[in-house]
Amino acid sequence: MSQYAVEVNDEYCRTNFSGAFHPAFRAVKIFHILLSSTSMCSIIYFLIKYNKLLAFHFNIKILFFFQFFSCFLQSLVLGVAQTHHFAFSLIADQPCDVVLSPFLFACFNLPLIFTMLCMEFSQILMVIERTLASCLFACYERSTRSIGFVLTTVAIIVPGLTCLYMYYDDSFNYPQMSAMATSPKSLLKVNYIFITVNVLNFLTLMHSMGLYRHNQQKINAVKTRDHFILSSRFQMNENIISSRLLWWLSTAQLLIFLTYGISMYSLRIFLSGPRSAVWQAVTELCYTPPLYCATMPLICIISAKNSLKERNTKIQSLLTLRSVGNEGWDNYQDQLKKQWA
């Protein structure tokens, strides 16, 4: 196996890759396959049944669709990779048979990293888009769609450049048995990137919480004013619903990705050298981004149902005439006038 940076012989494979045949390692593969399948089914179910309930502006909706697509692609690649690893662990005769070729490892690993970064950066850009919508609520509903296309393009280019920074000098020729492993040559840069991304996730969460409270205060301040046109009120309600949804998504993303970052960083520090099969299984299990792919559709479904319920309640309250106080007396006089007219 001269294609690898180190000499891969039977002794090396027995030391480093015998864990591929352990039941715990195979169980993690099955768990990821089931989780990936559940994520893809949940995403498809939401897009078919609940997509129209999120009546958002095009600019935020295209970013939502992009994050859904990133989650779907992450789940698809992970499911295919883990199915491949699980099948090879069953049919392989010796540990060296489960070693991935550099090309196959790159084909699995790069899409996983790229889609994971797309999920994170699209979240940041959605909060930026909602900030623009909140500041320009009076005219944003009539704004051009170019903002959405530009932000989506940024959500693709930035992760691509980040992957280029991490792997531009990496030939992926270090023997690996899992697509979720990290090449030793890029290990330090990967750590820097994930620390940076987690800090950005925290700032995004804080900003989304502040954005929701800002929109809530704004709509409370204009409830009694009649000079706001219907489109402005609709935009403010949309800002509240979308910023609350981003708050929930940002919380889930921060918790899940922070758990992943801390777990992997701790394992790399405390588990240097050859690892036992159980520890290798734990390392695989710490890959938590698929949990966000399964959680995101559920959060969006709950948000869509709550939004529909709130919308129906508001419509019903507008259709129901008040019967007490000054407004009730005015309504009663109007009914008498109509009766005797």
TrEMBL record:
It is found in: Membrane. The chain crosses the membrane at residues 30-48, 60-83, 103-128, 149-168, 188-206, 245-267, 287-304. Coiled coil: none annotated. Keywords: Membrane, Transmembrane, Transmembrane helix. It is a multi-pass membrane protein. One of its GO terms (biological process) is sensory perception of chemical stimulus. One of its GO terms (molecular function) is transmembrane signaling receptor activity. Its main location: membrane. GO terms for cellular component: membrane. InterPro entries: 7TM_GPCR_serpentine_rcpt_Srab, 7TM_GPCR_serpentine_rcpt_Srb. Pfam families: 7TM_GPCR_Srab. Belongs to the nematode receptor-like protein srb family. This is CBN-SRB-17 protein. It comes from Caenorhabditis brenneri.
